[in-house]
Design a protein that fits this description.
single chain, 2 domains, six-stranded mixed β-sheet, 46% helix
């Protein structure tokens, strides 16, 4: 015969267990993807780690896809393949907005939430953007440049002109330099998706003398900094200013030895970590219609932009971030 206490225990379990099961809304069947512009570089490996951490926390399936080398069409192809698998959501960093925007719109039309990170496509119907305020990142670098040049000198930039986030950074630098007529932008050099060309072109710039001497080099993407630094080392050009982008180990070590004056730090790990959680929320609490114009909607459930922050790293604050980066290797 069942005792009263046993009957109470069974009744409680019958009531509580379904509630506990209902609290776990996630499943390994939920698949979320990050489409990156270049999966081979440390920047995107850091983002992939953030995505994986959030995936483990939520108990969902995650994967990072994209070309192992800057290839905008290859990124579009990776995005389309993921859309065809009908995932729960997609994060994407846009290498070329004119190529990617129609694909984002097609995914949204198919009911797949898409959030951009790192590099935006504001003309698309993506839900919103998580990442660096790249215009402000450029302004931060611009103020450093002005300070190091004492308001006078010739500057060259290294970039991929089609990449939206890099264009915003350049605008930020230009905004600051407008007030300093003694600083001249000599050239904005297109590395054509190959950071190695920055080394060769830096050697060309370093051969200029007199009024044509290049006093400062600014790298708007993550991999050119180490290449330009190599050119400076070969020529023993210790009288030039080099400002880099991002915090891979090579760049940080070059800041430490003084070859790179400073670098602008972003948070790719945070972008992907927050991005997956944002997609998960939309997946479980869908908003319909998904493709409406949330930018102009005063009761929008989404922000326009989540700023993950930016910082300038130089010798004064280098050690903590370098130790953290070395520990992640």
């Amino acid at each position: 015969m069942m005792t009263l206490s046993k009957r109470i225990s069974i009744a409680l379990l019958t009531t509580v267990l379904p509630l506990l099961a209902g609290c776990t809304r996630h499943s390994k069947n939920e698949r979320y993807y990050l489409i990156a512009s270049n999966t081979a570089v440390p920047y995107w490996q850091s983002a992939a780690a953030g995505l994986a951490a959030a995936g483990t926390e939520y108990g969902v399936t995650v994967d990072t896809r994209g070309p192992a080398g800057f290839n905008p069409q290859g990124e579009v192809d990776a995005f389309k393949a993921v859309v065809a698998s009908k995932p729960a959501g997609i994060l994407v960093s846009v290498a070329n907005s004119s190529l990617m925007a129609p694909e984002i719109d097609a995914a949204i039309a198919a009911g797949i939430p898409v959030i951009t990170i790192d590099s935006d496509s504001p003309e698309s119907k993506r839900l919103y953007f998580i990442g660096t305020n790249n215009f402000e990142a450029g302004k931060l670098g611009g103020r450093r440049l002005v300070s190091r040049l004492n308001g006078k000198g010739n500057v060259v930039f290294f970039t991929n002109p089609s990449q939206p986030n890099l264009e915003e950074r350049l605008k930020g630098y230009q905004d600051i330099l407008e007030d300093y007529k003694g600083i001249k932008i000599v050239e904005v050099f297109d590395i054509k998706a190959d950071p190695g060309t920055a080394l060769d072109q830096a050697v060309v710039y370093l051969a200029r003398n007199g009024a044509e001497k290049i006093d400062a080099f600014v790298c708007l993407e993550s991999r050119s900094g180490a290449n330009v630094a190599e050119a400076l080392k070969r020529r023993n050009a210790t009288d030039r200013v080099l400002i880099a982008m991002d915090t891979d180990t090579d760049t940080l070590q070059l800041v430490g030895d003084g070859t790179i004056d400073s670098t602008i730090s972003q948070k790719p790990y945070t972008m992907a970590y927050l991005g997956l959680k944002a997609l998960d929320e939309v997946h479980h609490y869908p908003v319909k219609p998904l493709g409406q114009d949330y930018f102009l909607n005063p009761t929008s459930p989404f922000p326009v932009f989540i700023d993950t922050g930016v910082a300038l790293i130089d010798k004064t604050n280098l050690d903590p971030i370098l130790r953290k980066r070395m520990a992640m290797q």
